[in-house]
Specification:
The chain has 450 residues and is of the alpha/beta class. Helix content is 34%, strand content 28%. A hairpin with a 2-residue loop joins β21 and β22. The structure holds flavin-adenine dinucleotide. Flavin-adenine dinucleotide binds next to α5, β2, α6, α14 and β21.
Length: 450
């Protein structure tokens, strides 16, 4: 047998491996990398139409089964405009962020937070497609997922948020990875909450750090609520620990009086509040956060950096480069991508300065569904309607007591800005509001899943 050149060997190895159905991994090293055109392999899967039932009417694809997407899917299907709705979500099970602080501290059980996408789809007559969106062709109106492609007439993107670790001085990918894994922010649904709960259950004393970012972060009262409930838990379980609440902002960002009353009256001995503490770096080896004014030691932590729109918005080329939080470039009154009435962005990935909250996302998604239903029937979009921010914060776990806010927004056409309107604050904590917080969550879960 003559000498085989390296080039011929690679060709032969590739052919043999392909015929035998062996993946590139089995060949190993640089040879396999040269033999396997990785990009073509990836595209082979996503180019094929996804295995979904044929559409009956105009197809609306909703991406993201969170508070925004679930509501949009239901109300689009209910709109009576002959729309055929598909909800695309990468997770198989829904786990709620609202009320998760209560679960972390043992005040509600896991069934309260988790719900089935299958129930939501079956009860509301739309399709649930468990897949991850990876690309979009707006010209051809095709959405690519890891489970195949889907054609759409209208598309709603509601992928939520991601974290911006550079905002706290963490730019090294290894450090970011360590931080995400060891001290999760706990402001995205799923494993982060499970990890935090396990950490709290194993916690036997020292400083438990909770941090508050700047900007329009997800759930303004969320970190303060978490701090109160962890403090309440430490007291109840008689753990010799302390919550250290480091706030980037000069003061509590919402329901200020109610939170300060809880800090001072209930948790003076177990909670320290430090405003204007901007984190500039994290010393992971020594468990310290750094700022201009010095360092703070911690035993455990949930470190919450600034937020940005979900990475998907940027991947699909829809991020507004001028927006510091890389939110989507949309018409703020009709939610469609500028110049494209087929693609909409809703929920926490929106650029408008509304509170990034579940109730806001839920009320807004009903309006977005009405816009799409009108346009699909050749009618004009309805006039802008304010979303409604209703938000309960449980500030005491024993007994369960809460404070709350109920607000709308107003639009100023002269400078195209939005502001809070008709804000009702209920800052005196009580048990009736504690019970109302649970009722609010049950009503919203019913609205999305039943
Ligand atoms: C601890 C905590 C407490 C909170 N408390 C309250 C409260 O009491 N009241 C309140 O109103 N709000 C509260 N919130 C805020 C609320 O959870 C969010 O504002 C809300 O979830 C925003 O909804 P969304 O649909 O925009 O995003 P999400 O609910 O995060 O949903 C986005 C979905 O998109 C999916 N997704 C992302 N990328 C892809 C992709 N490429 N392919 C497929 N799917 C994708 C994600 O998996 C996710 O399911 C709280 C949040 C937290 C973290």
């Amino acid at each position: 047998m003559g000498k085989i050149s390296r080039r011929q060997f690679i060709k032969l190895s590739g052919t043999t491996a392909a015929a035998a159905g062996i993946g590139a991994g089995a060949l190993g090293g640089a040879l396999a990398a040269e033999a396997a055109p990785a990009k073509r392999i990836v595209h082979a899967g996503i180019d094929k139409p996804a295995a979904l039932p044929k559409t009956q009417g105009k197809r609306v694809v909703v991406v993201g089964g969170g508070w925004s997407g679930l509501t949009a899917a239901k109300y689009l299907q209910k709109a009576g405009a002959g729309l055929d709705v598909v909800l695309v979500e990468k997770n198989a099970t829904f786990m709620s962020c609202p009320m998760s602080n209560l679960w972390l501290t043992g005040l509600v059980d896991l069934e309260f937070l988790t719900h089935s996408y299958l129930d939501a789809a079956r009860n509301n007559g739309y399709l649930f497609f468990n897949a991850t969106v990876v690309d979009l062709d707006r010209g051809a109106r095709v959405l690519y997922t890891d489970q195949g492609s889907v054609h759409y007439d209208y598309l709603v993107l509601a992928p939520g948020i991601d974290y911006n670790y550079a905002s706290i001085g963490v730019t090294d990918p290894a450090e970011e990875y360590h931080l995400r894994n060891h001290f999760p922010a706990g402001f995205m649904p799923g494993s982060e909450h499970v990890s935090l709960r396990n950490k709290l259950q194993d916690f036997d004393g020292g400083e438990f750090l909770v941090t508050v970012p700047g900007g329009n972060y997800r759930c303004l009262p969320g970190p303060y609520e978490r701090a109160c409930l962890i403090a309440s838990y430490l007291k109840k379980e008689k753990i010799a620990g302390k919550v250290i609440l480091l706030d980037t902002n000069p003061d509590v960002t919402i329901k200020k009086e109610g939170f300060h009353a809880a800090f001072d009256e209930l948790f003076k001995d177990v909670l320290e509040y430090h405003p204007s503490f901007e984190i500039t770096g994290v010393d992971l080896a020594n468990k310290r956060v750094k700022s201009e004014f010095g360092e703070v030691q911690f035993a455990e932590a949930s470190i919450y950096p600034k937020v940005r729109a979900a990475r998907l918005i940027e991947t699909l080329g829809l991020a507004d480069g001028k927006s510091p939080q890389l939110e989507a470039r949309i018409d703020p009154l009709t939610y469609n991508v500028i110049g494209d009435e087929r693609v909409y962005v809703a929920g926490d990935a929106r650029p408008m300065p509304f509170s990034k909250s579940g109730n806001t996302a839920n009320s807004e998604a009903k309006f977005v569904a009405r816009i799409i239903a009108a346009r699909a029937q050749g009618k004009p979009a309805p006039a802008w309607e304010s979303p409604n921010t209703v938000c309960y914060s449980v500030v005491n776990g024993n007994p369960l007591e809460a404070i709350s806010v109920d607000a709308h927004y107003v639009y100023h056409p002269e400078d195209k800005s939005f502001a809070f309107d008709s804000v009702k604050m209920f800052e005196k904590r009580d048990a009736a509001r504690g019970a109302a917080a649970l009722d609010w969550a049950k009503a919203l879960y019913r609205d999305m899943f039943a």
